[in-house]
From TrEMBL:
Organism whose genome encodes this protein: Coptis chinensis
Protein name: Uncharacterized protein
Topology in the lipid bilayer: Lipid-anchor
Lineage per the UniProt record: Eukaryota, Viridiplantae, Streptophyta, Embryophyta, Tracheophyta
Keyword vocabulary terms for this entry: GTP-binding, Lipoprotein, Membrane, Nucleotide-binding, Prenylation
Residues of the full protein shown: 2 to 178 of 217
UniProt keyword Transmembrane, yes or no: no
Length: 177
């Protein structure tokens, strides 16, 4: 990764969480490499990806951690969250259960995460309009109640992916600077 060589002002760690197969790995590959895989297998091996982002006159290296499939067994440990300043909490808007499980993910975040962690709620797969099981309003309401940012995305169509990550990164920058 040649971005390692660039001079950065800050290094931020952020984590991806949410149920299995909601699109976490594809959101990250879209953001870090502009890649998408229709047949994507559970993440194996890759632990995190980097992308450098300019915020104002600062160059920020965002280190974004992806689960290696542990979410299937609800076996994400505290070390995954350690030092994370941001979390992207993802559900699949075509599967209601992944939205209903957000409560558990938020509990886990509050338990393991930093109290001032920036949390972004992401409803992914907005391209699957006819399969939608969670309205945009449901997502927005939950986010309002939890006082977190909300956005719908499509990793497949590359819709709002950049916006979701950049919001999280610029919020982290705001809080830490
Ligand atoms: P993860 O388990 O949360 O990391 O989910 P993956 O990124 O592995 O994606 C699970 C499945 O959903 C794969 O078949 C992806 O191709 C598909 N997928 C991910 N994002 C989208 C999206 O935005 N739209 C559609 N239609 N499929 C997606
Ligand atoms: Mg994955």
């Amino acid at each position: 990764d040649d971005s390692f060589d660039e001079e950065c002002d800050y290094l931020f760690k952020a984590v991806l969480i949410g149920d299995s197969a909601v699109g976490k790995s594809n959101l990250l590959s879209r953001f870090s490499r502009d890649e998408f895989r229709l047949d994507s297998k559970p993440t194996i091996g890759v632990e995190f990806a980097y992308r450098n982002v300019k915020v104002g006159d600062k160059l920020i290296k965002a280190q974004i951690w992806d689960t290696a499939g542990q979410e299937r067994f609800r076996a994400i440990t505290s070390s995954y969250y350690r030092g994370a300043l941001g979390a992207m909490l993802v559900y699949d808007l075509t599967r209601r259960a992944t939205f209903d499980n957000l409560k558990k993910w938020l509990e886990e975040l509050r338990h393991f995460g930093d109290s001032d962690m920036v949390i972004v709620l992401v409803g992914n797969k907005s391209d699957l309009v006819h399969k939608r099981e969670v309205s945009e309003e449901d997502g927005r309401n939950l986010a309002e109640n939890e006082n977190i940012f909300f956005i719908e995305t499509s990793a497949l169509e590359n819709f709002n992916v950049e916006e979701a990550f950049l919001h999280m990164i610029s919020q982290i920058h705001k809080i830490t600077s």
